[in-house]
Amino acid sequence: MNALPQLQAAFQDYVLGEGDATPMLPAVRQQGALSPAARLAIYHNAYRARMREALGEAFERTWTYIGDDLFNQMAGAYLLAHPSSFHNLRWYGDAFPAFLREQLAEHPFVAELAQFEWTLGLAFDAPDAAPASMDALRLLAPQDWAAQTFVLHPAVQLLTMQHNSVALWQGLGDACGPPEPAALASPQTWLVWRHNLQPHFRSLAVDEAAALMALRAGASFGAICADAQSDDAATLVATWLRDWLGTGMLRATVVANPATLVDNPSTTRHQHENHCANPPGQQDHRRGRPVEQT
Q: Which of 22, 114, 134, 224 is the most buried (most CB within 10 A)?
């Protein structure tokens, strides 16, 4: 215990472990009214309090939904199972939704609620990237469109839900309160992205969700058109493309061979109704930023 590296390792093990101070006690002098064990406990408990606080900030509405006791129980168990490996406390909690899915398997909507909250945070904190523009794509020659690929902006996230977890999140932030949790008749994919420094989200129709997943996997414009379930697939995909470009969801793409991209009808978005009639824009007070359903 005399060597500094050994002392530091022992102290770290104590702070991160379950609170057995025995190996550390010989290195702590008796001083003041508190015993060495009590003084060591200050560090042990403060670390846990800060980590629980970080989880509470990242999963504020999940915390509200399940209550203080259960959230603190889950946070404490998570800390033991997943000691932080991050230099930045912001990222601690990345495995918390999956942990809740295991620990609260009989309530899967809780894990989905947590995953939605985490995904909004990812969209907000994602790296910046120059968005693609329609002007640049107007330079693409018609014969090159089929092979053209696109890259999603780092803030874009696709999340498939089995329950009304987004409605739970919305209800926890307005006067209506959350609805009763319920399984959906079919899985629903949600699009989360950042536009004008704000996270946005909307539900996706099955065909648009499939197109975005294919685009994320590297599919070309031609392949996406071929998979689209429409009599005029090229027009449908071009409509989606205009919307994705207009909301900053695609990264800048280098194109060549000047041509003119034919204008297409304005997009029609498939969206679910809000739980409350005409709800106000949702506010994520955790980071003081508005979160909008577009």
A: 114
